[in-house]
């Protein structure tokens, strides 16, 4: 990664933190804007989804864009990536075309769950640990 980027490691870390923080701020702002009369649903869907996209995009500073895309579509995280992208689209569709606040909230929750599962794919054995934890809790 160091050879493929003209940015120093410190600059890339700062870019990652700034982009990730902007993503969190946008998601929180979207949540607060949900309760604005008439336009709240649209603002919520856009800000929440954009915030999550910025959070995922923050890793581009660490890996680079091509490596990020390649890793997103590796077999181990392909389904998680598809679910995240599908939830992004369905959140926006439920707000702009279907005008259904309940569906938008459901898709935002699914968006968060899919992003969590996607993120866990980068931590060795994290998904297995979560599966075992749920198996123990449900047994």
What count of domains describes the coordinates? Answer: 1
Calculate Rg over CA atoms. Answer: 17 Å
Quaternary structure of the protein? single chain
- Residues in β-strands, percent: under 5%
Q: List SSEs in N-to-C order.
A: HHHHHHH
How many distinct helices?
A: 7
Structural class estimated from helices and strands: mainly alpha
Helix proportion range: over 70%
Per the principal axes of the C-alpha atoms, what is the gross shape?
globular
Uncertain residue ranges: none
Q: Estimate the mean pLDDT confidence.
A: 90
Transmembrane segments: 15-35, 41-66, 78-98, 104-123
Subcellular location: Membrane
Family: Belongs to the SFT2 family.
Membrane topology: Multi-pass membrane protein
Describe the protein in words.
The protein has seven helices and no strands. By secondary structure, it is mainly α. The longest helix has 25 residues, at 9-33. The chain has helices spanning 9-33, 40-57, 59-63, 65-72, 78-96, 101-120, 126-138. It has one domain. It is globular. The mean pLDDT is 90. Helix 2 runs parallel beside helix 6 (101-120) and helix 5 packs antiparallel against helix 6.
